[in-house]
Specification:
seven-stranded mixed beta barrel; globular
């Protein structure tokens, strides 16, 4: 219980009412996860949120993946702009007991989706040069922002398939998130998303390098990441709504 609110990690999995705004697929998804002292990320999170804690630690994650078949449901598909690579740098928060994701940054290989994400979802998107390739079952992903030289590189191979995540497990805590919070201190929104439960595999990391942590005045991790991979996930996004404190 946090500030009088029970944490509900199960109900958000239900599909929201109404019509989604957008659909897309996430492919070749990788999640690199590290525990971190909550006091280090507290200055980066609006006061409306509590830091979500697992095993007495906050968590930060880097998630590279491919977006495919992205389309706004009320608009025609724009050829060449529905598939691109993305890199998320995120942490985990609570608002009145509702778990969600807070993004420090989202890097994208396409400029138009970057602009659209700013307009529709007020997310901290950055245009970046991103490369992703597959070879002998392995995957490499690299990203670099031109304006500030923030870079990220990783190589991995998916491992054995994991059992379905229990609601009290770390994989569930890190991946089963159905609310995206965004905006500024004065104007925060909540976007609900929906997808099937994650089918996660172990991820065997052969190479990792990034300076993204220092970009946000966070220490570079000193331990290897806890890593999960997923082949493909279909995701629906509902329109963002203003966050209201009760």
């Amino acid at each position: 219980m946090m500030k009088g609110y029970m944490i509900d990690r199960w109900t958000p999995r239900n599909r929201p009412a109404g019509t989604p705004l957008m659909r897309q697929n996430w492919e070749n998804f990788l999640a690199l996860n590290w525990p971190i002292d909550p006091t280090l990320i507290r200055p980066l999170i609006p006061d409306a949120f509590e830091i979500d804690i697992y095993d007495s630690q906050a968590w930060i994650s880097l998630t590279p993946f491919q977006v495919t078949d992205m389309h706004i449901l009320s608009a025609p598909e724009i050829p060449g702009l529905t598939n691109f690579e993305e890199l998320n740098f995120r942490t985990y928060v609570l608002h009145q007991g509702v778990p969600g994701v807070w993004f420090f940054s989202v890097d994208s290989s396409r400029l138009l989706p970057v602009l659209g994400a700013h307009v529709f979802f007020d997310l901290p998107y950055h245009n970046a040069t991103i490369g992703m390739s597959k070879d002998n079952g392995g995957i490499t992903f690299s990203s670099r922002r031109g304006r500030d030289d923030t870079e990220f590189s990783v190589a991995w191979k998916p491992g054995r398939l994991l059992a379905a995540s229990d609601v009290d497990s770390l994989p569930y805590f890190l991946t089963e998130r159905y609310h995206v919070y965004a905006g500024s201190k004065e104007n925060i929104t909540r976007t609900q998303i929906h997808h099937s439960p994650w089918a996660l595999s172990e991820a065997n990391i052969s190479f990792f390098r990034s300076n993204i942590f220092s970009t946000y005045d966070l220490p570079h991790p000193t331990t290897a990441p806890i890593a999960y991979a997923s082949h493909q996930m279909g995701v629906e996004f509902w329109p963002p709504m203003p966050l209201v404190d009760e």
